[in-house]
Amino acid sequence: MVQTRDGERLASEVYLLAVKSAPAGQQRWPAVLIRTPYGKRRGVEVYYRFVQRGYAVVIQDVRGREDSTGEWMPQHYEIEDGDDTLNWIAAQPWSDGTVGMTGGSYLGYVQWAAAGCGKGSLRFEPSAGKGRDCYVYDPENPSVHIVDMSENELEIPEDYTRMEWREDMLAYTTEPFTKSCVITGELAVTLYISCDCPDTDFMVRITDVDEQGRSIKLADGVLSAKYRNGFEKAEYLEPDGIYEITIRTTKISNAFLPGHRLRLTVTSSGKNFIFPNSNTRDGFDSAFVQKAHITVHRGPKTPSRAVMKRENTRD
Length: 315
Description:
This protein is mainly beta. It contains 3 helices and 18 strands. The strands form 5 sheets. Strands 7, 8, 11, 14, 17 and 18 form a 6-stranded antiparallel sheet that branches. It has a 4-stranded mixed sheet with strand order 3-5-4-6. A 4-stranded antiparallel sheet has the order 9-16-12-13, with no helix packed on it. α2 packs across α3. It is elongated, with a radius of gyration of 23 Å.
């Protein structure tokens, strides 16, 4: 049983390679964790392959299900319970301290929840110092969101190197990492913007830039400026205003290797993914379109930034 921070007990079963089958001298193993509401013994045979390949396997009933105590409230306790379980595994004598997770559906959700407990955060502010960066977005010449037509997939690690040459795209890049940096979970990008139109879209993209300069997409997010304070009502822009908008991206888990860099790009379109915003009060459903002159402000009073979770690693 894994005891949670609030006193509940999560029923867990551990599968290890028999000592006589283990490599000589090996006493600790990396672990694969499966947290499930469907019963920890259901289909357990499919996980034996991990044991045969040298992993410890931990299968757990989530709170309130099967043999675990507590109240079953879907998604409510999974961040804390996932964190408690990871810490429990790391403290076991058979564990080498590394844990991965697997599974789909609710088993996939609990993986993101566990990642959400990641200790520490990383804050990236574009181009330190006061300044501003400008671009012009033309609805009749939108940038392209790359789609894998062979699989009809949007969220894949496509190469955006050439796309980032466009004049209607801003790019902010870190210095090369000196050691591996693991980013997991959802990212939040806050921009301080000005625009001479009543509305436009903002699309941000996070990429991993390797030592050859290839820029591979990891996550993206989009928001119409008029909904910057919520979707209940539209709040249009004034030409002389500076507005704060926060865009949440899709979730990632990526190790930025030594020599690699993290890049944030900002643009206002994504053909194949969103309809071009007309930059009018009518959005994409307008007979009239106009170019938008957009400014991203940075500095102490307008701290445009990206905030993300950095995992603690042993190196």
